[in-house]
Amino acid sequence: MKINVKSVTVRNFLSYGNSENTYNFEKGIDIIIAPNGAGKSSITLDALMFGFYGKPYRKIKLSSLQNHINNKEMRVNIKFTKNNDEYEIHRGMNPSVFKIFKNGDLIDEYANIKDYQKMLEESIIETSEQTFTNLIVLGGVGITSGFMDLSASEKEDLVSNIIDIKLINLLLEFLSIILNASFVIKKAIVPESKPTIIPPITSVV
After folding, report:
1. Contacts of residue 154, Cβ cutoff 8 Å, sequence gap at least 6
2. pTM to 2 decimals?
3. Which of 55, 95, 165, 197 would bridge with 160, disulfide CB 3.0–4.6 Å?
């Protein structure tokens, strides 16, 4: 799985005001340089976390993500690509918004928001919230749990996302099928021959 974030747009989000602010990510490595308090973490960590998972990255209340001056119409839009498809996530508060678009078309919303979120995590971005906080934004000022503090299942999930164990297991399974098929074909073409038994010599002429 590989997704490429193309842009993040925020409005009334933390220190960002009522006008839309968009950061476009370029191909390669992006370096954001700005004075302290300018909103670097807001656009990279907080906005991505809220856009993908609907939660704050920091240990604050969800309502604290909303600009305290305008106190309404908070929005985060994320554009990204996966394989050859383009996706957009629109998420916000006051009023509440959560929409996912694929190639410009709205993916039908589920009756239960939790199911819609689950679909996003499992079928589109294929990364859990725990993996995101520990891998994508690893080392975030002590906010993320240390690897040794994670449960066995959380460790497995994190390592699986790093080295893509699922893909490796799939390839090994495929290789096993090929080897087994080759063995069956070989047996069909060259059947096992029974060993020739030479009777013992009982007399010498």
Report:
1. 130
2. 0.65
3. 165
